[in-house]
Amino acid sequence: xxxxxxxxxxxxxxxxxxxxxxxxxxxxxxxxxxxxxxxxxxxxxxxxxxxxxxxxxxxxxxxxxxxxxxxxxxxxxxxxxxxxxxxxxxxxxxxxxxxxxxxxxxxxxxxxxxxxxxxxxxxxxxxxxxxxxxxxxxxxxxxxxxxxxxxxxxxxxxxxxxxxxxxxxxxxxxxxxxxxxxxxxxxxxxxxxxxxxxxxxxxxxxxxxxxxxxxxxxxxxxxxxxxxxxxxxxxxxxxxxxxxxxxxxxxxxxxxxxxxxxxxxxxxxxxxxxxxxxxxxxxxxxxxxxxxxxxxxxxxxxxxxx
Length: 306
Ligand SMILES: [Zn+2]
Ligand SMILES: [Zn+2]
What we know:
Low-confidence stretches: none
Strand content: 5-15%
Number of domains: 2
Number of helices: 12
Largest sheet: 3 strands, antiparallel
Distance between the termini: 18 Å
Number of strands: 7
Bound molecules: zinc ion
Structural class: mainly alpha
Shape: rod-shaped
Oligomer: single chain
Helix content: 40-55%
């Protein structure tokens, strides 16, 4: 049997099967994108630590670690400042130089902190300049660093060597932890997307009690329960032929090719041992509106399809 026979006998099942097939492909594509994204992140993390290592190698020889920052930044007006204030300013200068290297890919000759200008000593400036030439951060890394620029605003560094060394000891752990994060849609999705989309695609599970075509109302638009007043079930896009539910004419035994919209109120239906007027049948199924929203022309065209 081809799928359209199945669709007539059990439309919801066919809709589900189509959806599942589509979903498998969509999910495969999402998972592939996630894997590419993860590989990109690993590349960026690796590059970040490569730059940090380069920075450490470049500045290690300049001055003893505990004096380095104080020595490489010199202000114009050092006498006018309290020594602690000046040290704090210099610590901020250091953070700014790291930011300049990682995000702007250039080192300024001087920086202004708290209205005081500090010059970078020539050999330190040259060391950073050659670092940029040898380990220039990629534009992708620079872009990410710019996005977290606020982090650099309040973390003065007092010992650059100790800071960089401490950072580098985290490298393996960060990469290992990141690698272990499961990277697929099922793990990342927190909104039960598959079930929600399937529900949406499947729609209302109720079938027209006459022709068994599925209700196609989006009941989620109204808060009241599906089938209640003002939220009735309905085949908005037209009903099926009644014969699809086994209806036939009593006298001729021919299948009834009427659609629910075409049945007159005084026509009689026989279900099991009972005879109903269509009007009564409709009253009995008051949770349904049997008129579709199609106009006569659209209904005729739909009927012509059969
Ligand atoms: Zn119907
Ligand atoms: Zn419904």
